């Protein structure tokens, strides 16, 4: 019975770490793209959404090519930080982050775009800092979309096999 729990606990650990990392990265990029109207906006959106449309095995293959033991990136990580990404917990978390990033980013961006900009403008006029406006005005209004994305990412991480293989 104990050996049956080990894979479940590993999947749970990977899913929790990947969801926490995606919470920071996906929400930040979603908020940034909802606020900014730059010429690179659509390009960043396409690149951030790309892992959602790629098959998991293809995504896993590209991650193996990127973090393979014969690449400069893997050697740099080992020389600098003393760990390898391939076939480790860190590698599984990184693969899950990449595979589930669009599931956090897209709903967060949609939720931030749905927030009326007048609320944040009023807060700025009243002298509230941008960070406080985000945490006290924008995030409370967009929390449902952010939570939906986080739940989607967590569930996908629990069932992810192709990219983390």
Descriptive account of the structure:
With 165 residues, this protein is an all-alpha fold. It has a domain at 2-105 and 149-159: MetI-like fold, CATH 1.10.3720. Helix content is 81%, strand content 0%. The protein contains seven helices and no strands. It has helices at residues 2-35, 41-53, 56-67, 72-81, 89-114, 117-125, 130-159. The protein is elongated, with a radius of gyration of 18 Å. The protein starts with a helix and ends in a 6-residue tail after the last helix. The relative contact order is 0.18. The model has no long low-confidence stretch (mean pLDDT 88).
Keywords:
single chain, mainly alpha, 7 helices
Largest β-sheet summary: none
> How much is the radius of gyration in Å?
18 Å
Amount of beta strand: under 5%
Helix count, per DSSP? 7
User: CATH superfamily of the domain at 2-105 and 149-159, please?
Assistant: MetI-like
Known CATH architecture of the domain at 2-105 and 149-159: Orthogonal Bundle
Shape: elongated
SS-derived structural category: mainly alpha
Mean pLDDT: 88
Please mark out the parts with pLDDT under 50 across 5 or more consecutive residues, or reply none: none
Assembly category: single chain
**Main CATH class of the domain at 2-105 and 149-159:** Mainly Alpha
Ends distance: 24 Å
Helix/strand order, N-terminal first: HHHHHHH
Number of strands: 0
